[in-house]
Amino acid sequence: MKTADAIWMCLPEGMDELFEMVRFERTEQSYDIWLDEKKKLSDEDYRNPHIVARGYTDYVTIQDYPMRGRPVFLHMRKNKWWDKQTNEIFSYNLELPNDEGTRLSAEFVAFLKDEGGDDSPVD
Length: 123
Fold this sequence. Notes:
The strands form two sheets. The protein has a four-stranded mixed beta sheet with strand order 1-2-5-4. Strands 3-6-7 form a three-stranded antiparallel beta sheet, with no helix packed on it. It is of the alpha+beta class. The longest helix is centred in the first third of the chain and has 8 residues, at 3-10. It has helices spanning 3-10, 15-18, 43-46, 106-113; strands at residues 19-26, 31-37, 51-56, 60-67, 70-77, 79-83, 88-90. The protein starts with a helix and ends in a 10-residue tail after the last helix.
């Protein structure tokens, strides 16, 4: 089993469908995991030629549940999309499967639900 596969098994189910792991670091003090949202437009936006990728939001660091006595820090960022017609920048709300017994910290849920993008128009 690859290291990345083992790490995905320790994260909430469905995370691997929404994010790609870009870095993992194990130190004496913690585990740090960097995750970028996969580039995927909604079905509606996929058909809209005015929606284009506009980079990523800044990383948000969320402390997840500890593993093996060490804190786990998830450094996550979401895609930013630009609607050229309205000149708005936005990010999608994300949802993980809500399996019975799955617990997510309030901070983690807030990140997934936050639109997270810079709503300012493009210059």
